[in-house]
Design brief:
21 strands; single chain; mainly beta; 5 helices; Protein Transport Mog1p, Chain A; 14% helix; 7-stranded antiparallel sheet; 338 residues
Length: 338
């Protein structure tokens, strides 16, 4: 019998370390980029690849081919990134703790290798979360700084593969000192003002996420976080609203090959209503509709493929259903098996 349970957060495979050192992509010059919605700013390498989402994100990548590697820590080319993200919040203490926790990955041996220190960012007290561990091409190191201002958390992340973090030591110090913290957007001046006043909805532009078990297109402004638990693989995709997400869980189904029985076993977990039939990745599937809270609507999709059970759960904020549901449904239609 396969019955879905609650999982711990954030899993990562640890690769045996070595002394290799990748060739760093040089920083030729730093360029100040300013956001005109939430007013944050940061210096980034001018010659690196830039990605900018107004009011939300400034990302500079030394090697755009390593975008996926920062999500799954797979083998690949070396690279580094500078990322500044703004997240509007309502409860600063609770959400700050959650943001720090969700920025961690956990290791196969269950040990927490992260260190948390007091720091300063943008002239405000901050928390610094850092970790270093070995990969096949050398040490990976990441430093993330969290600071709250005007009910907005600014997160600055500096990370590099291939033991190249120290090669950027001086430039990273300049980048940290250049940060201006985000704040709430200005109040609308008239009915035509389009500046956002809260968490950003999912981007209509989708990007491909690939894992050993599945592929899926997710909103460009969502991040993928690997989770740990009793399954084979779990990944949570989330944007600036922490209660709006898509999560994919993969389980061993070698002992239970009947989807109807699996649905019957899990029916009580989703309000006891009958599931709706659908097609997922070219296979027969089904989904439950339910509401975990008065303001959140959810669906849980189930499909079997190659002796594995795939569960795709999506949650969205009910008042913004027109913004979230069409995009999330596009993501489900893009789902495929590896």
């Amino acid at each position: 019998m396969i019955r879905i349970t609650t999982f711990l957060l954030l899993a990562l495979l640890v690769v045996i370390g070595c002394e290799r050192h990748a060739a760093p992509v040089p920083i030729e010059e730093l360029e100040l980029i300013k956001d005109d919605v939430r007013k944050f700013e940061v210096k980034v390498p001018k010659n690196w690849t830039h990605q900018i989402l107004k009011g939300e994100l400034i990302l500079a990548s030394a090697n755009p081919k390593t975008t996926k590697r920062f999500l799954d820590f797979s083998k690949g080319e070396g690279g580094a990134k500078v990322e500044l993200r703004a997240v509007q919040i309502t409860d600063s203490s609770r959400v700050m703790d959650s943001l720090i926790k969700n920025s961690k990955v956990t290791f196969e041996d269950g040990l927490d290798r992260y260190e948390i220190e007091d720091a300063t960012l943008g002239g405000k007290p901050a928390k610094k979360l850092w970790v270093a561990f070995d990969q096949e091409d050398g040490q990976f190191r990441s430093e993330a700084y969290f600071a709250e201002n005007d009910s907005v958390v600014t997160i600055l992340t500096l990370a590099a593969f291939g033991a190249t973090f120290d090669d950027y030591k001086d430039e990273f110090a300049q980048i940290i000192s250049s940060v201006k913290l985000a704040r709430r957007p200005d109040a609308p001046k008239g009915p035509d003002t389009l500046a956002p006043t809260g968490p950003q909805p999912p981007s209509d532009t989708l990007r491909r996420f690939s894992s050993p078990q599945f592929v899926i297109q997710i909103p460009q402004n969502f991040e993928g976080k690997r989770l740990s638990g009793a399954g084979i693989e779990s990944v949570n995709f989330v944007g600036s609203r922490l209660d709006c997400n898509i999560q994919v869980d993969v389980f061993d189904a070698s002992k239970q090959k009947a989807l109807d029985k699996i649905l019957l076993q899990n029916k009580p977990n989703y309000g006891g209503k009958d599931p709706f039939s659908t097609n997922i990745g070219g296979q027969k599937g089904a989904y439950f509709e339910y509401a975990p809270t008065s303001k959140i609507n959810s669906r849980a999709y189930f499909v079997l493929n190659n002796k594995k059970l795939y569960r795709i759960t999506m949650n969205w904020y009910k008042p913004d259903e027109k913004l979230y549901l069409p995009v999330f449904e596009k993501c489900i239609k893009s789902f495929g098996f590896q």
